[in-house]
Amino acid sequence: MSQEAVVSPQPTIQFRSDMTVELVRAAARDADVLFAARVSTAGEQSLDEIDADANRSIGLIHYLMRDRHGSPFEHNSMTFYVRAPIFVFREFMRHRIASYNEESGRYRELRPVFYLPGAERRLVQVGKAGHYTFESGTPEQHALVDAEIRFSCTQSYESYQRMLAGGVAREVARAVLPVTIYSSMYVTMNARSLMNFLSLRTHREDSRFPSYPQREIEMVAEKMEAFWTELMPLTHAAFDQNGRVAP
């Protein structure tokens, strides 16, 4: 009796418009800022501040933030899991004040999950470089973006699958994939590094130096900030009240 070859089903291509951010682990408290700062004047007695009530020292945290004494904000750590399109990661990794480990297209077959801007994504850039705004697109423009991204990503992933099926190495076959494909990484940073990231990758009109980030990386930054706010509420409040400038 003849046997038919078993053909693996093709993975279903998915499109999404959101970002995943999870706090994996953290050693970050407002009190960490206090003992680190007080060693400069108290020496070994600063050890008494390790478990201090940070609410009694809000003024010190604000002073450090206002006068940009940054190093006390480095004695903590947060590790985030992030899943986002590759083009977001390429912007993220311009911040060389964190540790990164990313999913590898050399060692695993990349899953067919692609970014498709949501209906609320502003599509039209108005103004010249360095001085512009984004405005909502027309229904026709949104339909065009939707159709072209779906077509391009589907075609490229099918090309990727054909090369893999033909025995081509993953590190070569991935060359056809667009930067809209989702990747995943762990990123570890301290509060000072995170404040630097947030000052550039979130848009707030009340910032001393307003930034105009690409919306997709801002979506990641907003989720990271929400976790940090819960961990270090006093430090976050001082950051906000002092113009969102990294110390």
Summarize the structure in words.
This protein has one domain (14-28, 76-241): Gyrase A, domain 2. 39% of the residues lie in helices and 18% in strands. It has 8 helices and 8 strands. It has helices at 30-42, 58-66, 86-92, 139-165, 170-173, 191-201, 215-231, 233-241; strands spanning 14-16, 20-27, 77-85, 99-102, 113-115, 124-128, 131-135, 182-189. It has a 4-stranded antiparallel beta sheet. Strands 1-5 form a two-stranded parallel ribbon. Strand 6 (124-128) and strand 7 (131-135) form a beta hairpin. The protein is globular, with a radius of gyration of 23 Å. Mean pLDDT is 91; it is low at 1-7.
Structural Rg: 23 Å
**Count of DSSP strands:** 8
Mean pLDDT: 91
Helix content range: 25-40%
CATH class: Alpha Beta
**Main sheet: strands, sense, barrel:** 4 strands, antiparallel
Q: How far apart lie the N and C ends?
A: 75 Å
* Number of DSSP helical runs: 8
Task: Kindly report the spatial arrangement of strands forming the biggest sheet.
Answer: 2-3-8-4
Order of helices and strands: EEHHEHEEEEHHEHHH
The overall number of domains is: 1
Beta-strand proportion: 15-25%
